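Q: My labmate handed me this sequence with no annotations at all. I'd like to see what the chain might look like in three dimensions before we decide whether it's worth expressing. Could you predict it?
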Amino acid sequence: MDKISKSEIDTTLELCDEFTYAEEFETVGNSFFERLYFGTRILILAEKFGDEILIAGNMTLNFTAARAEIFIAYSNENNFTPENLYALKILGVPTQNIIFVKDLKRLILELRANIIFCVDYDSNEHKNLASTFEKTIGEILKECQDYKPEIYKKLACATALNAPPDFYAPNLLSVKRPKIGTTDNYDFDLIDRANYNWAERVRFPVAEICRKTLLKNNPLAAAIFAYKSKKFSPLRILNSDEIFFERRTDNQVFSAKVTASSGAAESVADFKIFGDCWTPNVDDSEKVLKFEWADAVQVQQIKIYGNIFDNELAQIKIRLHIDNAGFSLDNIQVIEKTLPCNGCPLILDVEKIFVRRAEIFLVKGSTGFGISEVEIFANVEPLRKIAPFIKLAVGKNFFYRYDVPYEIEKIPLNLYKFHVDEPVKLTATSNDETILTEIFNGDEEIILNLGGAKEIVLTAEVLGNPNIYDKAIIRRVGDWAQIQLKVSQWLDKINSRAKG
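A: Here is what I predict for the chain of 500 residues:
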């Protein structure tokens, strides 16, 4: 059998691509992509070249298009080659914004980025930077009350480098939850421990140019292929969303005097959840953490994280000394709660109060008990640079244009909300006729009956705020279109191997 030449592959791909994507649907869109970020500084912290794509490749493209100023800082410059600069040029990052970090604290303080993306603790090679960053940002937040960046941490190996190679599906899939025994080099399950709650992961949509089912003309794939000396596959990295775990920086504990009856009290106010804990001495009769503020602080939410390695429940008591108009009348609110296991946070939403002092007592706990971090917030939601948005999903997969075989009659629709509490109105139309109107009030699923419709336009809008919206297309496809897609993806895979 004669070998297929690269030129023949490219020609065939162009024909397939032209046929499959001949129509560009103006009805597909999302308010997330309409906002401009002039004057917004983005910092991406990576161990080495290539990691920036694993951490925030899609978000780099999103923010570049939105006119934000993007900086990428590396803690290791040993693998620098000219190909690195070419890859970053594809992503739109100028050479002068590429930084080799010698003093991380100085960099953060000088740059004062509004939004920071950083690796997290899912691999040995990333743990040093993840730990150094959290130690550094903890120090900064204590020293600088006027700087509170948005922080998004990424399990770059578990959800990108070693994720399933699932790009060549009929429709683009969302990032899958990593699993021990399935995800390569994922030996300790962080998911649903500490702040790594899978249901609360932050999911950002991807740019239009990265949504198609071929690598051809995908700038993120091109940037990956530019790293010829590195071995990581776009098939594992390209998905219909890009996910992170958010860490708030408006924690009032950073301005408090923190003491304890015994043990390392400072461990609960260092920004580190994966690491040291406050554990009182066995012979300590009080077993109490104390927080004191020079001036009363507003409190609406409290989060307490236990030891990530402790799989037993603990009983704690919280005492809040409420301040009334500057006069402490010894009005004490007492709350007794169970602290979840595995470091999952105890989350308490309270009526808005002002507090001068707070105490946390250990009532009952195992030998592995510890409190890794305490967060006290003035508001349930902080102010953010990234605007609220919504995104439609089929099942759990974000979709923009979704191809459905004719034999499928119903599909489940879900909605993802990024800091949107209001209900969302969903409207489905076919040939300018409304076939469905429903309201998403929460996390419910809505079943869409496709009937005989060949194309359905879906519009989701936040009630009272139509500026937050999502629009997507469902298209019915026959056998020939499905065969054509498989052929074009097969050719695309061969072409990508030649590039890689």
